[in-house]
Design a protein that fits this description.
- The strands form 2 sheets. The chain has a 5-stranded mixed beta barrel with strand order 1-2-3-5-4.
- Helices cover 34% and strands 21% of the residues.
- The model has no long low-confidence stretch (mean pLDDT 90).
- The chain has helices at 81-84, 88-104, 112-127, 133-147, 180-183, 193-204, 219-233, 244-248, and strands at residues 3-16, 20-27, 31-37, 55-62, 70-80, 169-171, 176-177, 189-190.
- It starts with a strand and ends in a 10-residue tail after the last helix.
- It has 2 domains: 3-83, OB fold (Dihydrolipoamide Acetyltransferase, E2P), CATH 2.40.50.140; 85-248, Recombination protein O, C-terminal domain (de novo design (two linked rop proteins), Up-down Bundle).
- The protein has 258 residues and is an alpha+beta fold.
Length: 258
């Protein structure tokens, strides 16, 4: 049972018995992992912020290849992002990012690029202007899906590779824009010009730069389209609970993801 180490970001935690805690993380080297942090509830100072959701840390643990749980030995915090987020909107968007990973990723399958995109997204959410948060969330959703093999197509018909309809018709099930003939089969969403421009922009620019494009228009429309796309291609994705509260106040605060 060798002692190993990996950078990881905490997705969620659960109580274990009276004194310990199970910590679910997304690691750079091993994908999803579950740690047992013995005594963490009895002596919270032992691991400090390292067990809090959204924290990025270097975790030292006893890895058991044939086990679901691995014993946590030590943790060195790199970025205690959760402790920096003091308002509901930032917390909701950061929560949506780790919730998305929890829904889209399976098991101990490392994906270093996806981990780096998640880390960059959380830092951007902490530092960007409030008005940039919708763009960052949408960019992360699009790019996470792309890295996992489901990149939306905007350059030609996603079904037949033909010329696109001038009506900007998007099929969540078929994963991209449609030509008029394929769109006639149904299941399409007509996009506004602003929504299509935003989708194209946020798909291709680094997530860390999405905050520079907070002027992206129709973010609510774009988010609904992206979530419809994710529902069709990822069985465990049924929306993001972390954004439900923001949706409930969308009428009072137009222009925000809600």
């Amino acid at each position: 049972m060798p002692l190993t180490a990996s950078d990881a970001i905490v997705l969620k935690t659960h109580a274990l018995g009276d004194t310990s805690r199970i910590v679910v993380v997304y690691s750079r080297d091993r994908g999803l992992l579950k740690f047992v942090a013995k005594g963490a509830r009895k002596t919270p100072s032992r691991f400090g912020y390292a067990l809090e959701p959204l924290t990025h840390a270097r975790y030292h643990f006893y890895y058991k290849p044939d086990r679901d749980l691995h014993l946590l030995s030590q943790a060195d915090v790199i970025a205690a992002t959760g402790s920096r987020l003091t308002d509901l909107e930032r917390l909701a968007h950061a929560g949506a990012a780790i919730e998305l990973i929890d829904r889209l990723v399976w098991g101990e399958e490392p994906h270093e690029e996806l981990f780096d995109v998640l880390a960059a997204t959380l830092l951007s959410i902490a530092d960007a202007p409030m008005s940039a948060l919708p763009a960052i969330t949408i960019a992360f959703e699009l790019q996470a899906a792309s890295l996992l093999g489901y990149r939306p197509r905007f350059d030609a018909c996603a079904s037949c590779n033909g010329a696109l309809s001038r009506e900007r018709l998007f099929s969540p099930a078929r994963g991209g824009l449609m030509c008029d003939r394929c769109a006639a089969e149904g299941g399409v969403i007509a996009l506004s010009a602003d929504a299509l421009a935003g989708l194209s922009l946020l798909l291709t620019r680094p997530v860390g730069e999405a905050g520079d494009y907070f002027e992206v228009k129709r973010s609510g429309e774009i988010l609904r389209v992206v979530e419809a796309f994710l529902r069709h291609h990822f069985q465990r994705f049924q929306g993001l609970r972390s954004l439900e509260l923001l949706r409930s106040i969308a009428v009072e605060r137009p222009g925000r993801v809600a």
